[in-house]
Write a structure and sequence with these properties.
Blueprint: H1 2-12, E1 15-18, H2 25-38, E2 43-47, H3 50-56, E3 59-60, H4 61-65, H5 73-79, H6 84-96, E4 99-103, H7 110-121, E5 128-132, H8 147-150, H9 164-169, E6 172-175, H10 185-196, H11 201-208, H12 217-220, E7 225-228, H13 231-244, E8 250-253, E9 255-258, H14 265-274, E10 280-283, E11 288-291, E12 305-314, E13 317-324, E14 329-332, E15 335-344, E16 350-360, E17 363-365, E18 368-370, E19 382-385, H15 394-399, E20 408-411, H16 418-425, H17 430-438, E21 442-443
Parallel strand pairs: 1-5, 1-6, 2-3, 2-4, 4-5, 6-21, 7-18, 7-19, 19-20
Antiparallel strand pairs: 8-10, 9-16, 11-12, 11-17, 12-13, 13-14, 15-16
Length: 449
Amino acid sequence: MVLERIRYFLEDGHVFLSGGAGVGKSFLTIELIKSYRKQGKIAIVLGSTALSAFNIGGVTLHSFFGFGRCANYEELYYEDRNQKDKLEKIRRILKQCDLLVIDEISMVSASLMEMIYYRLSRSEFNGKILLVGDFFQLPPVVNFKNSQVHNSLFNHSLYAFSSQAWVDLKFTNLKLTITKRTMDKLFYEYLFFIRMGEVNQQILDFFKKMLILPKDLLIYMDEYTLLCATNKKTNDINTKKLNLLQGEERIFKAFSEKIDQNLDDKSYQQWINGLNSLEELKLKIGAKIIFCVNNKEENYYNGEQGVIIDFIKDEEQEFILIEKNNKERLKLKVYEYILEEYELDKNDRLEAKIKAKFIQYPIKLAYAITIHKSQGMSIDKLICDIDGIFEKGQLYVCLSRAVNPCHLKIVYNYKMPFENYFLSVLKTDKEVKQFYSKEKFIDLEENEE
């Protein structure tokens, strides 16, 4: 069993769990965390972004480690002079930790990885570390205009695996290889080559058949969700499609509450902005929506779609009646997003303390969403707008959200031939390819099929 195998490797050392999109990295990680906690062990769960932290049920690593807005070790050194109490708390928490999980490690820079190791090496941490992610997907966001970052040791080594910390921690590399998102093996195989930045004419012909004309985009979007690179295009399309619907527009404003008054306003707002939810949600009956969270108890998942049927007020509580694409109907209630931080109680036991809440319906208009906000989504009917793709791995992330290639369309506006444009936005990093080719990875599912 895969869960038992990963636990076996964690008994002897630290683990890096990787694999392409849709292979079940997050699902396995969540099951692992549950199994540790069921045995009374302490698992601390961190995400590199607010969205990844939420998706895996943890807190952001910046918040946990007290990094604030520090970009490198030099800045952290001066920051730490003013937070000695915080550092003592971190040390005491890490002393108890059996498993430290960091999700979406691809978005952690080499400098940030060094800062994490700096914290761990100056605490009494004796637990195991599990890093989860795929370096072929979205890379770290580093501001090279900042001179201190620009002059850092890792100026030409962007990724966490380039750091000395990665070398010193001696990770065992594990991978998942069996897709859970699509049953189409040929499609998955072609996505694998796109992930590696290696395509041939056969692959180009396969995706060229999915092309639609830009002028036909609005026709398809009654059924399909568009993924695109920019917020502006996303917002413009959603507004345009909503305005075309008849009927009254309803506006649902989120309720947010800062419970811990020591939480600074900027961090609080950054957390809200990082969630895949809206402070002001505009809807109409007939609007196409997409769910933005997994909620097994209420029977919906991240990426599932539906249509607004009605707005219901029942005993002072408001519901949104939604018919999902599978024709099931549900009365959707608001969802409570919680910002937590690990604390120690009076008996020095670890507990999660709520710092803030954000309450909103966990849906968005599904006509268009950004590639960055599609994290963790499996989308049945998908159009990939490949205009303006600017980031390494972005094309792969976009295409790999698709569940079924029969329901995948591609659109772009440039005059150059499709093959030429596709190759121009197929951006992979040589450093990442070199890392995956030279490192040994153990396939956790080798004998599973």
